[in-house]
Amino acid sequence: MLFIIQSTHDYSTCQTHHPEKAPIFKNTLANLGAHGVTVHAQYSNRLEHKLFIVCEADSFEAIDSAFDPILEMGHYEVTPVTKRDLN
Questions:
Q1: Which of 5, 31, 59, 68 could bridge to 53 as Cys pair (CB 3.0-4.6 Å)?
Q2: pLDDT at 12
Q3: Is the distance from CB of 42 to CB of 64 less than 8 angstroms?
Q4: Would you say 72 and 18 are in contact if contact means Cβ atoms under 8 Å apart?
């Protein structure tokens, strides 16, 4: 299954320059594959504190497990999508 995950937070909860949270956030994203999540693309809008991840997993449960360490660091919208050929 394909998913688009949108992660948002506000300036006051931004983990980027937080000495304890930043490594946890980065390591969680780096280790998504260990939970069966394949990342196809990742985009960010730093000014709006938004991250977009296009990924693939066998189930929503795999996504839930993979993101568990950082759930309290923001709001996550997980949308299942399908790829359609334009022809």
A1: 5
A2: 84
A3: no
A4: no
Amino acid at 12: S
User: What is the rounded CA–CA span in Å between residue 46 and residue 57?
Assistant: 26
Q: What is the pTM of this model?
A: 0.90
Q: Which residues pair with 56 in a beta bridge?
A: 2, 38
Name, in order, each residue with C-beta under 8 angstroms of 54's C-beta and a sequence gap of 6 or more. 2, 3, 4, 39, 40, 41, 42
Per-residue pLDDT tens digits for 13-33: 888 888 999 999 999 999 999
Residue ranges in 31-85 assigned as alpha helix (H): 60-67
CA distances from 7 to 4, 31, 79 (A): 10, 17, 11
Q: Which residues contact 17 (CB under 8 A, 6 or more apart)?
A: none
Q: Return d(Cα 23, Cα 87) in angstroms, integer.
A: 43
